[in-house]
Amino acid sequence: MGIIPLDFLVSIPWFPEHGGKVDATNLTVQGGGPIPNAMVGLARLGVRTAVVAVVGDDLAGRLSIEQLKADRVDTQYMIVKKSKQSASAYGFIEPDGRRTIALHRPIFIEPRDLRLARYAAPRVLHLDGRDIDATVKMARWGQRAGATVTFDIGSVRNDVTPVLPFIDHLIVADAWAFPYTKERKVRPALEKLAAITGGTVVITEGIKGATGLENGWFLRHPAYRITVVDTTGAGDAFHVGYIYGLLNGADMAERLKLGNVVAALKCGVPGARGGMPTLARLRRFLKRPPEMYA
Questions:
Q1: What is the pTM of this model?
Q2: Whole-number Å distance between alpha carbons of 73 and 35
Q3: pLDDT at 176
Q4: 20 to 30 A Cα–Cα from 193, which one of 24, 53, 58, 174?
């Protein structure tokens, strides 16, 4: 469960000065959101996935649902609110792959919107915490249903503290972990977060790779060197590889590796979903992976 904006992403030769203009070199329009992106990525790897998210009865909402269906993601639990505007995001991608995003989200999931009795019990429940009251309700339900609860957050926006005790695998970006824990280094930040959740914690750091803490053991895996086109959705892609490993009984080392692999493949293509690999492409990459960052 999570937000689902329709992404409008333009590639630009440089970022204009305040009040300036620039001609875009490419336009990508596709569904977005950390959880829907991850479910699309997992579906391409052969995993059965479903999304709980809210859209309006407008063109953006219809496109978001149609694109999920095109990737064989189950949309029967989507919430459609009449006379409401769907969320949308507007991104600018620079030549080095960095992106600047503006999100417009006038629509939200309330706890009363959830129809828990209708939902199939999942092996993994993946959440983003943007609608925190509904997120807590889903996390509690996931625990009762016997699901492994995973969580994604990339930046500090709203307070997600209430849901953290229900999370089994907290996989977050350094841009959130360091401000939240008031730490500047990965290990103490991991320790603080693990003390809150009681589960596994992973912090991603872009080209520095990812570091995890599980059962008292720290483990780091470097990122792969590739030609970066667009970093939009790199964190979402990491979750795809990590959860795929989790579903297949992989240990921490393999989960971190798979997360970095899928993130690297994604960054070679514009858009959050464009580079999400098929299982065949993932296996080809694993046979001859490129050099890693130190």
A1: 0.94
A2: 12
A3: 97
A4: 53
> pLDDT (tens digit, 9 = 90+) per residue, 233-266?
899 999 999 999 999 999 999 999 999 999 999 9
Q: What is the pLDDT of residue 21?
A: 95
Does residue 161 register a pLDDT over 70? Answer: yes
| Adjacent-strand bridge partners of 218 | 213
Q: How many other C-beta atoms lie within 10 A of the C-beta of residue 154?
A: 17
State the pairing for strand pair 88-93/79-81.
Answer: unpaired
- What would the 3-class secondary structure string for the chain be? CCCCCEEEEEECCCCCCCCCCCCCCEEEEEECCHHHHHHHHHHHCCCCCECCCEEECCHHHHHHHHHHHHCCCECCCCEEECCCCCCEEEEEECCCCCEEEEEECCCCCCHHHCCHHHCCCCCEEEECCCCHHHHHHHHHHHHHCCCEEEEEECCCCCCCHHHHHHCCEEEEEHHHHHHHHCCCCHHHHHHHHHHHHCCEEEEECHHHCEEEEECCEEEEECCECCCCCCCCCHHHHHHHHHHHHHHCCCCHHHHHHHHHHHHHHHHCCCCCCCCCCCHHHHHHHHHCCCCECC
**Amino acid 294: pLDDT:** 67
For 100-125, write each residue's pLDDT tens digit. 999 999 999 999 999 999 999 999 99
The edge-to-edge listing of strands for the beta sheet with 217-221 is: 124-127, 148-153, 169-173, 200-204, 210-214, 217-221
pLDDT for 185-220, tens place per residue? 999 999 999 999 999 999 999 999 999 999 999 999
